[in-house]
Amino acid sequence: MPLCRFLRAMGQLSTVGCLLFFLWLNGICTGFKLENCTYINRTFKSVYSVPGDMAMLSSTLVSSDVFNFTTVPYNITWYNLKTGREMSNQTGRILVHRDTLWFLNITVDDIAEYLSILRTPSQCYRQWIELVVDFPFAGQCGRPKQAFQPLTLGVTDKVSCPLKDYISKLDSYNITSSIKWYRGCDLIVDGTGKFKYMDTATLKIERVEAGNNLYTCTLSFTLGGITGSVSETIEATVSGKYSLTPQVREPANETIKAQMGSNFSKRCLVFVQSVGRPSVEIVWWVGNKFIHHTNTNTSNRIYTPKPRLSMQDVPKGAWLEVFLIISELREEDFHINYTCRAVSDRGTPEGYFTLLPTDPNIILPIGSVLGGVTVLFIIGVTIYYLFKVDIVLWFRKSFPVFYANTDLDGKLYDAYVAYAQPCAIGFSKEVEEFALCTLPQVLENACGYKLFIGGRDCMPGKAIVESVEENIQASRRLLLLYTASTFISKRHTSSTSSNNNNISMSSDNNERKTGDSNGSMSFDVSEEVYPDSRQQLECVAAMHRALLEGSLKVILVELEEISPAQLALFPESVRHLRKKQGAVCWWKNLRTRQSWRTCARRREDEEKGGQDTQLSPSLSPSSRFWKEMRYSMPVRGKRAAYPEKTALLNL
Asked: Which CATH superfamily, name and number, covers 146-240?
C-alpha cells in the first residue's frame, strides 16, 4: 500500500483511517463492503510466526462484556484486509472455526491484517488482528519475537511456555498435543540433568546458573489433517534478585455476610517471598469488571486505593495490601464473586469472596416476645395469686354452663354446719350466734345456699347417731366451726392453762397415727378426743369421709386467732387438714372491720348504735371472708349431669 504509506507519512491519515481508505479503494474492484460495525479494541494485537509454522488468530468478541452470547444468536466472519475477501477453508492451508482463524502452513503471502466481524440480529462488532511473518536470524534457533522471563540465580526455578492459549483451544477441540523444550538449538530431554518437564507448559530448572539463556517450547499437534507445530522463544534473564510465586492470604475463597445499605471494605493481602522489591501487581475484579486503583477521595461507589508495601526479613519477602471499598452496598452487589489477583511472571494466583445479605435479626424480636410473655406470665400468676378467689367467683357467675347442676346429685344440703353444742365443753355464745344467725343470714338469705344446722334443723326424738350420719351424707360440704377452746376433753377440765384463755390440755396419747402400706400418713380418727358425743360423731364422720374416703370436703371456719401452742392441742386430723387446705378465718374479717371502722366510722352505723347494717363488711357477701366461704362452697352450675352419674348418686 505505497499510497497509504505516503499519506500516513504526510500526516494526512491515521492508521485506522488508512485501512478504511484502502478498503474503500479496494472495494471498488472486489465488491467488499465495510459495514458500520462497533469497533472493539479489547485485544488489538499482533501474532508473530515464521514460515512453515502454524498460527492461530483468535477473536475476543465472544464475551459477556460485548454482548450476551449465551442467549443472543450470532455468527463470525473473517476477512483479509489486504485482499478484502472473506476467509474460507483451504485444504492444507487455512481452517476457519467460528472465533478462530487457523493458518496450517504459514507463508510470507499470509502477512496481512485480518478483520473479524461478529453479527447478531440487531448489532455487529469488528476487531483487527495483525499476522507478522518473519525469518529467524541467521545462525539462531530462536524466534525473532521473544518473551522475557526472570530466573533466580542458584535456586530451583521454572520457565513457562507462552502457548497456553493454543493448548486451551486444542483441548476444547479434544485434540492431543505435545510440547518439547529446547535450550538454544539443543533438545532438552525430560528428566536429564537439571531439567524436568513439570507439566504441558512448564520447564523446571534446578540450580540456575549465571548468564542469559534462550529456551524454546514447540507445541506439536494435528489439525485439519495436517500435522504441524508452533513455537515460542523465552529469553530467561538470571538475576540475584528474585521473586517467587505470590501467595494470596486474603480473601480465602469465603462467603461474607453484610447488611444492605452499609459501607463495606475487604483487604487483599498477598505475600511474595523475594529479595528486593517484587514485580507484582495486585488487582481487584468485581464479577467481570476490573476496578482501577484510585485515590481515597473518590466519588466512585466501588474503588480500591493505591496498594501498600511492607518488607519482611524472616522469611525474606514483601507483604502487599490493597483494600476494596464499597461506600454503600446495593442489591446488585450481592451473590457475585469479588476476586483479588496477584499478577506476576511467576503466575497469577487469586482469592475471592462472595457477598451475601445478612439474615434478619430475629434475636431482638424473639427476645422481646419471650420477655413480654415472661412478664405477662409473672403478672398473670401474681394477679391470680392475689385475686384467685375473685377470679374464680366471677368465672362461676359468668359461665355457669361449665359446671354441673348440683340439684341432680341426690344431696339435700349444700353444707352441714358442725359446732360445739350448748352444755358442751368449748361451747361459746358467740359461736352459736354465728352458726344460727350470721351463717344463715349471708349464705342462705344472700347467697342462696341451703344449710343443715344441728341446733336448728334436728328433728326431735331422732337418734343422734342416725341423724348425724344421715344429714352429713346428704350434704355436699361440712363447715366445722371452732375456736381455741373447742377441742377440749372432759378428762382434762381439771387442768388449767397459764394463759387467760382457760384452755385445757388434751393428751397426745389420745391421738394415734398409722401408716398405710405405701408409707403415706393416715389417721385413726375413731379414737381422737372431742368435747362431747355429738361433736365427736360429727367430727369423726367428717374426718373419716374427708381424709380416708375423700368423699366429703370439710371447710374449717376459724372464729378466733389460734396460737401455735393452742394449735398443738388440736386433734391430729384437724391439724393435718388445716395444714393441707388451710382455714377460712373469721377473726381476720373482724380485725379488718375494726380497722375500717376506726379510720372512717360511718354516720349510718352511729345512728344505729354501732349495729351492723346491710352494707357492713362483716355481713356483706362481697367481703373477703364471705368470698372465701363462697369459693369453698359447692358451685351452682347449669350443665346437665349424665343420667348414669345421677342414678348412682341417688343410691
From this structure: Immunoglobulins (2.60.40.10)
Q: pLDDT by residue (tens digit) across 107-133? A: 999 999 999 999 999 999 999 999 999
CB 153 within 8 A of CB 208: yes
User: Minimal CA–CA distance to 283: which of 243, 325, 339?
Assistant: 339
* Peptide bond between residue 349 and the one before it cis (omega within 30 degrees of 0): no
Q: What does the alpha-carbon distance between residue 426 and residue 432 come to, in Å, rounded to a whole number?
A: 11
Distance of alpha carbon 352 from alpha carbon 250, whole angstroms: 8
**Strands of the 157-160 sheet, one edge to the other:** 157-160, 202-205, 195-199
d(CA 487, CA 479): 15
In this structure, what C-alpha cell is assigned to residue 496? 388449767
**CATH code of the domain made up of 35-133:** 2.60.40.10
CA distances from 630 to 148, 380, 445, 543, 556 (A): 106, 23, 13, 21, 13
What does the pLDDT average to over 519-544?
A: 57
Direct distance between the N- and C-terminal alpha carbons of the chain, in angstroms, rounded to an integer: 131
The domain 247-357 is placed in CATH, from the list 2.30.30.760, 3.40.50.150, 2.60.40.10, 2.20.25.10, at 2.60.40.10
CATH homologous superfamily for the domain 415-604+613-633: Toll/interleukin-1 receptor homology (TIR) domain (3.40.50.10140)
Strand residue runs (E) in 330-465: 337-343, 350-357, 415-418, 451-453
Q: What is the pTM of this model?
A: 0.42
Residue among 642, 505, 622 at smallest CA distance from 570: 505
CB 552 within 8 A of CB 478: yes
pLDDT in tens, 492-524: 444 433 333 333 333 333 333 434 434 344 455
Give the pLDDT confidence score for residue 650 in this predicted structure: 40
Q: What angle is formed at CA 100 by the lines to CA 224 and CA 161, rounded to 5 degrees?
A: 85
Delimit the domains of the chain by residue range: 35-133, 146-240, 247-357, 367-397, 415-604+613-633
CA distance 605 to 610: 5
Q: Do the domains 415-604+613-633 and 35-133 match in fold? A: no
If we measure between CA atoms, which residue out of 628, 601, 636 comes closest to residue 616?
601
Instruction: Report helix angle 624-632 to 586-599, nearest 10.
Output: 160
Integer Cα distance of 616 and 441 in angstroms: 13
